[in-house]
């Protein structure tokens, strides 16, 4: 980490490139994660948010919106596999999928591992995010040009209202409610529109923030989805570069139960490479710590 | 967070107490967690390590050794419940328990929730840690003066060698291998001595670092324990203020299997308050992400 | 700076004590100075302000009010010598001196190097600052127990109104106008009261902030003093641990001119050790950069 | 500084763009300056050094080599005026000037304010610095395309050896001895070659680091130049964004004395706009604090 220089008989402790840092402040504003940036690859203010992509030694490329980490090459699969494969494996035969948000492309990449899928619409409000991801995040955005993918650059909370009984799976891969326009994707109205846009066997997942720093949002997302869907279950996954590392997701459906109706054999025989998600993780994700179970029971 | 002052007609954006910060650098040294400190309560260099305890708004009191976070009042129960209750509930009737390390007292506090326990020896190398914890961490150290507790201030890796067939449960609550003298508690010799000190039905748990930043240590701890114990299983728990939030623990025994031999009814009927651990969490903790399963299979 | 540890065959780059940092944010709030703290010696919230004293490797002990650096053992003499000796050497025979603020004792220490002085009243609003300085800042507070010193714990802006034609020299050693109650010491009323409390040959100095980050306060202090005193001159000194390193002081008198009436021989023959101030520095301090001369001409 | 967002009834303290920071570590490595970056404009690793240019709210554009601040739009004139105008005004009629280093163009800009100048050779080792400065630092690099300027991309410590009795003024505008190849510009051999390349009336200035953090280099530069030149004098200037704000420069000549031979009228009648330097500043800059005078006397 440190390199010594001896110049003209004087020894110098020299620490190169120690000068550029990224600080993500967690909600209360007095704690967070810091990362050294090697190189700032992209930085822009879109109509909706500040976009930054930078290189690090440890995490590879890091993508941030309004100073909130969205993905790193190191651990993006933790998040995208948990968000996508839970509702995808619960659906008996997912053909048509709607991804709301998800501009970096990681959710689409995971959806397309399911061979039954014929079409994915990704509705991302911010076209600049998608352009930047295609250019600078090839690992995450690898499938955005797949012919089965249709990209729509609109407000997902409005776009979903165009459909009734249309999708097999809806994946809400929003930014933080406090970044950009993320808040629109946390309203009851929006969840109701998702319900209507889903077919009878439809399943849904929604990123639901973390308990420690954003517990209010987690409870809000869960309780609002629960008002709309007959089956609503919170599940958890590790996600190292997100606040607290304990990430919340909400599964919802019109009847399918993510535990009772789960077929581990489907996962075992999947054929495609998954790095995080497996049949044991699926079940384990719905086991909640006692404090969290109690909080949800009271909602 | 910010308070405005208007003095003599000039307006000043004034942000009080923004000046004292704690930075924990994770292993690669170019990332980590930061926390604002409200007040530094205790700071000392013991024979073994640098000890700091400080107050924060969000985490309550935080305890750090050599700049590595050991506990915060906010989430100490995540860690201590997972470290302690897994081996404790797996033992049919734990009476005598050895805690190695654990100077803050959190493990002892959890052990004593089990009514069968008659004696806990806590062997902590650094007496100054225990003194500081008693004074400044009342939530964590609450049971260190319980009459069933015997405190020993010695190197646990040596102390355990004094016993053969003595303990029902051994809990290795070490600091990081890189802080203070933590490294001694990660050797095969030491694990062998633990095996010898355990009775036939004995169970053991060992904190085993995190995969993301300290994966080499996690694999080392697991593989060395596996050489010594017939049953060795890694399990995971969320731990927000530890690196990556995905904390590794190793369970080991002379025969008891943490899944097959687990009796969920014992947990359900426990009677004592547990905030994190429950019977579903117990089983879920042994479900490992695919990448980690594969790594362990190759060891 | 970095120490390697090899534990059990694994090499670890280990950087001890890298975890406690002090950040002073300069006025615009998006830049400042950072220092590693070795040990936090004192931390308290008085009635007026947050007080912190900590040890560093490089600066020795550092004293901060509301997160603003007041003194460091490394460079306190830069500031205190410039604040004190300019008005002290300009007075023909200073016997009675009033220090307003200056709770760390550095100004009193410098005043008492002048053998003519019979009495110094130090009026510091915050008694806790003085107590902390006596205990933790022996280098700075070394003369606070001298029999010629009278300590008064009152608001200096009120206290000075008790005197007419009383002092030979008044030294305004305030905190920042934005810290604690510092703002009271930047009003025209207060400067008028200082004028009245000074004898005919009286001289005054006032710390006047820095131009780069706090130029508005520098201009305010200078222009208000100028309304009250017939002779008013800004002077500058280096001060490494204050914002920008270019510190402003205002000299004022009822007639004595700090250049024309200056006698370099007095300084040369002073006899007491001065580390920063000398007869050439005295004159040089009144040479202002062109941009600053122009700003002051327009006030 | 903070902007509130209310989304769906939940209020959020939102601090946009707080995530990208620049930290310059001063020599001992445990203190320094920090600045929030708005936008990273340029980042590259040249053959010699890491180059970064970024935008800030407060300082405008900032240019850094190996994490060491070279110029900011806010205060570049402090440094460049003091480095250039002292030797330029001391020469009776400067026609041919050599700038060694100075890739940002600030020294050339100041040199060309002197109407007598017919030719400036700027010898900068790193062509990428000049290209970046031309593109991103228009304020500093404004005169690099002037027809009187010849740009040479070579090691200045070698290049100067090509000349004997050639230049009227030489300006050593090096980077830090610890950044890039700066160390070559602090050797006695190099200073001897500068002496030889200067004409009889020649004058020279060399940036000489700061006393507080880099005092060893300051003393080294001064003492080596003194071995070579009959007239050698250290002078000081404020420089807010350089370490300590107290910047050292060495003036040297074959006989001209920067105080005795100084003609203030030349400065008064200069005609070109100078923002920092003036005839009083010229003289004041050679007044050294007592501690520094003593250090230099002992060299």
From TrEMBL, chains A, B, C, D:
Q: In which pathway does it act?
A: Amine and polyamine biosynthesis; spermidine biosynthesis; spermidine from putrescine: step 1/1
The UniProt entry annotates the active site at 173 (proton acceptor)
Query: Which CDD domains does the annotation name?
Result: AdoMet_MTases
Q: Enumerate the Gene Ontology biological process terms.
A: spermidine biosynthetic process
On whether Transferase is a keyword of this UniProt record, the answer is yes
Q: Which residues bind spermidine?
A: 80, 104, 173-176
Where does the source fall among the domains of life? Bacteria
Question: What PROSITE patterns does the record tag this protein with?
Answer: PABS_1, PABS_2
Q: Does the keyword NADP apply?
A: no
Q: Which residues bind S-methyl-5'-thioadenosine?
A: 49, 124, 155-156
**Entry keywords, A to Z:** Polyamine biosynthesis, Spermidine biosynthesis, Transferase
- What are its GO cellular component terms? cytosol
Catalytic activities: S-adenosyl 3-(methylsulfanyl)propylamine + putrescine = S-methyl-5'-thioadenosine + spermidine + H(+)
Q: Domain named PABS: which ranges? A: 19-254
Top enzyme class: transferase
Write down the EC number. 2.5.1.16
> Which molecular-function annotations from GO does this UniProt entry contain?
spermidine synthase activity
UniProt lists the family membership as follows: Belongs to the spermidine/spermine synthase family.
How the protein assembles, per its UniProt entry?
Answer: Homodimer or homotetramer.
Q: Its function?
A: Catalyzes the irreversible transfer of a propylamine group from the amino donor S-adenosylmethioninamine (decarboxy-AdoMet) to putrescine (1,4-diaminobutane) to yield spermidine.
Name recorded for this polypeptide: Polyamine aminopropyltransferase
- What organism is listed for this UniProt entry? Thermosipho japonicus
């Amino acid at each position: 980490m440190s390199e010594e220089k001896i110049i003209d008989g004087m020894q110098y402790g020299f620490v190169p490139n120690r000068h550029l840092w990224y600080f993500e402040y967690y909600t209360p504003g007095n704690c967070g994660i810091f990362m050294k940036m090697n190189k700032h690859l992209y930085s822009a203010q879109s109509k909706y948010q500040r976009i930054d992509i930078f290189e690090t030694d440890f995490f590879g490329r890091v993508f941030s919106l309004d100073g909130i980490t969205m993905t790193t090459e190191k651990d993006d699969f933790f998040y995208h596999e948990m968000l996508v494969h839970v509702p995808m494996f619960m659906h008996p035969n997912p053909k048509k999928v709607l991804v709301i948000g998800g501009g970096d492309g990681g959710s689409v990449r995971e959806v397309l591992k399911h061979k039954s899928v014929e079409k994915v619409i990704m509705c991302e409000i911010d076209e600049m995010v998608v352009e930047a991801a295609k250019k600078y995040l090839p690992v995450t955005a690898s499938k955005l040009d797949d012919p089965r993918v249709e990209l729509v650059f609109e407000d997902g909370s409005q776009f979903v209202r165009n459909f009734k009984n249309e999708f097999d799976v809806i994946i809400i891969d929003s930014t933080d409610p406090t970044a950009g326009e993320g808040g629109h994707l946390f309203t009851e109205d929006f969840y109701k529109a998702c319900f209507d846009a889903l077919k009878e066997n439809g399943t849904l997942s929604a990123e639901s923030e973390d308990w420690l720093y954003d517990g209010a949002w987690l409870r809000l997302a869960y309780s609002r989805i629960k008002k709309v869907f007959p089956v609503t279950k919170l599940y958890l996954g590790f996600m190292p570069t997100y606040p607290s590392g304990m990430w919340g997701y909400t599964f919802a459906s019109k009847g399918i139960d993510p535990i009772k109706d789960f077929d581990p054999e489907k996962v075992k025989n999947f054929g495609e490479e998954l790095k995080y998600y497996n049949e044991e993780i699926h079940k384990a994700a719905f086991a909640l710590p006692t404090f969290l179970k109690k909080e949800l029971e009271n909602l």
